[in-house]
Amino acid sequence: MRFKILMPLIGSFVFFAACSTLHKGQLPLSESNVQANRFFENISRINNKLETFQGVGKFQMRDKQGTLTSRIAWIGGKNGRLRIEVLGPVGRPQASFATDGTWFYAITRNPLRFHKMHSKNASLNALISVPIKIEDLRRLLAGKIPVYPHHSIFVHSDRSGSGYVLVLKKRWMGVVEKIFLDNTGSKVRKLEVFSTAGTLAYAVVFQGCRTVKGYHIPSRLLISDAGDVTFDLEIHKFNPDIKLADSAFVLEPFKLKIEK
């Protein structure tokens, strides 16, 4: 069972911290570089002015042994700040986690347990069984694309016959990320992030899109690991550019409510 934390989340909580070869359909090197840079600039501009946001939705987490479904609410801010509440049947928070960019906090209510650890960008593998970083999730919830450190980029046609694949490579490591684009090279359809060993760490499929106050927000994020775990998030409400105090990203016992 790979639901390491979320399946028992409503009851109790235990937190663990956590080429150069051309592909068929790839453009000649010089032309490819120009197009790759243009596509990369397109991605970098997606919601690049969005700093604070609030959302409400529903997630369904699945593996071969079961399914967990719950409502969820979140807020995000600058400098890596993120807070998420897992909501119970009547809308009351049942579990929370947050980061203020320096500390990571986690709490459950029944029984009441509180955890705090020093971490700027912890992995959520222990929480949702998918090795995605907190900052990656924050960017995804803001409709942005996580971009990993890299030394070179190139582009080739998607072998599915539609769109392009932007490939980010790091010296001595090879491919660190693949970003699947539509035919215009401006909309992201899918994202794949690779481990230092070169294996798939996690993938994200973007489904649907709506515009909220000029920002492009996905309707659904399907996050999965290389095995059998999927974290399916539906985004029902999204409010950008809201005022948030720094204290909203610091969890303390009995101070745990996000106003929605």
Q: Which features would summarize this protein structure in a list?
A:
single chain, mainly beta, outer membrane lipoprotein receptor (LolB), chain A, 13-stranded antiparallel sheet, 3 helices, globular
Descriptive notes:
The protein starts with 28 loop residues before the first helix and ends in a 20-residue tail after the last strand. It has a 13-stranded antiparallel β-sheet with strand order 6-5-4-3-2-1-13-12-11-10-9-8-7. Helices cover 11% and strands 43% of the residues. The protein is mainly β. It has one domain (29-249): outer membrane lipoprotein receptor (LolB), chain A.
Q: Kindly report the CATH topology.
A: outer membrane lipoprotein receptor (LolB), chain A
Q: First CA to last CA: what distance?
A: 33 Å
Overall pLDDT confidence: 84
Q: What name goes with the CATH superfamily?
A: Lipoprotein localisation LolA/LolB/LppX
Concise account of the structure shown:
With 260 residues, this protein is mostly beta strands. It has one domain (29-249): Lipoprotein localisation LolA/LolB/LppX (outer membrane lipoprotein receptor (LolB), chain A, Clam). Helix content is 11%, strand content 43%.
SSE map:
Blueprint: H1 29-45, E1 53-63, E2 66-76, E3 82-87, E4 93-99, E5 103-109, E6 112-118, H2 125-128, H3 134-141, E7 152-157, E8 164-170, E9 174-181, E10 188-194, E11 200-212, E12 215-224, E13 230-240
Antiparallel strand pairs: 1-2, 1-13, 2-3, 3-4, 4-5, 5-6, 7-8, 8-9, 9-10, 10-11, 11-12, 12-13
